[in-house]
Specification:
Strand content: under 5%
Distance between the termini: 44 Å
Number of domains: 1
Structural class: mainly alpha
Order of helices and strands: HHHHHH
Largest sheet: none
Shape: globular
Number of strands: 0
Helix content: over 70%
Radius of gyration: 16 Å
Low-confidence stretches: none
Length: about 120
Amino acid sequence: MIFFWAFVIGGLICVIGQIMFDVFKLSPAHTLTTLVVAGAILDGLGLYEPLIDFAGAGATVPITSFGNSLVHGAMQEAEKHGLIGVITGMFEVTSSGISAAIIFGVIGALIFKPKG
């Protein structure tokens, strides 16, 4: 059943993004930013963790999870280190994902011929 709910929740997040493109005519940058901020707000309200528990990868794979990670890391480190923890916490939690994206992007550009 977890696969079903992961598919449904992940699909709904993607449908929301597609509606933002098609109906509201938002640019990709506006859509991306809105979804990241929505994930951050949901985590700040304590609603994103239960969604992850319910939907698994359906909630952790979409871009809303990046906003969740930023706020989650900032809040954890703020409890330990105060105000400076807010800044360092965001980078600690998300640095591995961002680093992996950069490294794999460079490897892909070296292996394949990039256009443009």
